[in-house]
Amino acid sequence: MEIDFSKLLLNYPYFIAMIIFCLGCLCTLTQHNLLKKVIGLNIMQSGIFLFYIAVGNIKGGIAPIYDPTLPEGTLYINPLPSTLILTGIVVGFSVTAFALALIVKLYNYYGTIYAPKIIRMR
Amino acid sequence: MYLWENMPFFLVIGSLIAAFVMAGFARWKKEWCPYLTIISVGFSFILSSILAYRVAGGEIINYYAGGWNPPWGIEMMIDELGAMMLLLMTGSFLLIAIYSIKSIPREIPPSVSGWYYSCFLLTLSAMMGMVATNDFFNLFVMVEVTGIGACGLVAAKGEKLSTEAALRYLILSSIGATFLLFAIGFIYQITGNLNMSYVAAELVQIKDQYPVIIWVTISFITIGLGLKAALFPLHIWLPDAHSSAPSASSAILSGLVVKVYIVSIMRLYFLVFGLDVFTGTYMRYLILIMASLAILMGSFFAFVQVNLKRRLAYSTVAQIGYIFLGFGLGTVWGITAAMLHIIIHAFMKVCLFLSAGAIYYQTGKKKVTQFTGLGYQMPVTMGAFTIASLSMIGIPLFGGFISKYGLALGSLEANNPYFIALIVLSGLLNAAYYLPMIWQAFFVSQPKSQPKAKLKLDAIPFSMLVPIMITAAGVIYMGVFPGGALAFLEKAVSRFLLL
Amino acid sequence: MDDYISKVVFRYVMLIVIIYGFYVILHGSTSPGGGFAGGSILAMGILIYFFVFGSHWRGKLREAPMSVGIGFLVLGATVEGMKFLIPHEHGPVGTPGTLFSGGLVSLANFCIGTLVTCAILSIIYLLVKED
């Protein structure tokens, strides 16, 4: 299978989204600090948000607001991925809030948010 | 007939509204919460019974939210598998809600007992939505909400261990959901649709055009939903979360929550991608390998545990392996056995965890080495425990035998008889860790220093005894009369395999 | 945080942020933005007050956002649910630049905005509660 590199350069947002996603996944899985794990989760989600926005983008399109004064045949960007991402942001926000609440509780119990120390104290 | 037409919508949204109403009651009248929960879940149970009756009559229910037809609107579709899962979930939740009245105040601090029921209903509503939906993005949202509700159920105990387990569960399950979201993005990019039926129709035409993207998508779905369904190498969150939660929560998590993800995976593999893509991307063989490892390693890990609930949690890992093995085989009997095992395992695990909770309630015993003489102190509970354990081993006349027999038939159909050896070996391992408990409970005599034990009825409340008895009866019923469920599942399987 | 500069600066910045949050909520039905975005901005404005000028809000007032949030949740859910239950009901399209021309959508936006503000405030208050 041959890869056309000019197409890869043309679609650079997908590339960057994938890199951000992998970095976030690495951060979540390898960091020992619980707070950094949650931050890694957020970085992962940001990568996906970038991916969705890139999917919805159309070159030369304008913001999808209904306006009767615009001429016929005006190019709009696809609003559906943006809408989905709004939901994704809300879900990510609630997960983050829940995780932070649990971390505060763990800090009250153990006096640290460093995961190996917590495991040693158990 | 407004209610009749909008029944799937009311089913999901009724529990959701009840969850938030319960959040209000948790601040105002805490002691009403269990009874209001039972009313709400009972309403859902009645609705899903009606839906199951309609589906059994040969009707597949398509509901379009707001009257917007697909591909624009959100579609909810209830097929045979969905109706069966809805009935199973609402029924089990009803039993567990009845059990919770007396059990929950013993196990969680009184300040959060109202919030527990809020999480309970939130989980139920999101699970019903996940089973009923036919829309990819809706599926993602429901997956996340189920994850949050299940973490709330674990964290409700408020102890050190359960908080830690809940955090690990939350982080890992959101990683899984993130992978699922990425996969949905890929699907939307190549098909331009989010409705599952339309995506399936589109994928048939373009699957040769984008082999790499389909391969990436199906692996992301396997990682994402497999992480949540605790497929073997991804199971690391499960034992902590399921063993440190309150008993009623453990029954929900182990018996039902991991199953709805499996139902979603089955839907995506068979109805959206189709068996060709499932086999062609080698995902089927990966699933078979992981499931075999899950069956063996889960049983081995369960064998060395001392804590009863931890042993049951590892046993769940092994049983999930059976379900994955069944649909990984990709034959008629394999998929039928997988679906049947979802029902039967729900009955068995709910019964076992509720019995564990009842043992803790009466005697405060948590370890499997302390079972001596329990059969005389609580004969009904231990009787139910015995029935569920024997079913877990796979003795004929109990439910577990039927699904294992189906799996054996399925592996013969797939020309792969090695799996029969695996199933037999796993049955022996199950016997090795379940039978000693029963032996110790009934047949080992007390030390002579203690007064001789007399047979008397359990000293636990009636509302805790009834759910245990009903689930044990369900196990026997599924073992003796599996015909009704099999006939119901036959249509679902033929739809899955496009027969 | 006891800092003179931040107190002087944020005294004015906070007002702008809060007004902008209300703007986004109220114009959400006819322009980009809406309940969630505006509600987050509004909550951030209030949180700046909370962090810069110290936690003066104690006792029952701290519990208030959760109750108000639950109330608006029920109201917003009812309005949004009506859109789902009545076939093809989405209200008038509305003209950009006006406040309440969106009909049901404007009301739902307002409910969601208030709900999001209350939710974020109560989450932060729960997290910083000293006990």
Can you offer a commentary on this structure?
The complex is a heterotrimer of chains A (about 120), B (about 500) and C (about 130). With about 120 residues, chain A is mainly α. Chain A has one domain: Helix Hairpins. Chain A is elongated, with a radius of gyration of 20 Å. Chain A contains 5 helices and no strands. The mean pLDDT of chain A is about 85. The termini of chain A are far apart. In chain A, helix 3 runs antiparallel to helix 4 (about 80-110). Chain B has a domain at about 295-499. Chain B has helices at about 1-5, 5-30, 35-55, 80-105, 115-130, 135-155, 160-190, 195-205, 210-230, 240-245, 245-280, 285-305, 310-330, 330-365, 375, 380-395, 400-415, 420-440, 460-480, 485-495; strands spanning about 60-65, 75-80. Chain C is mostly helical and about 130 residues long. Chain C contains 4 helices and no strands. Chain C has helices spanning about 5-25, 35-50, 60-85, 105-130. The longest helix of chain C has 26 residues, at about 60-85. The radius of gyration of chain C is 17 Å and the shape is flat. Classes of the chains: A mainly alpha (about 120), B mainly alpha (about 500), C mainly alpha (about 130). The interface between A and B is medium-sized, with 34 and 30 residues.
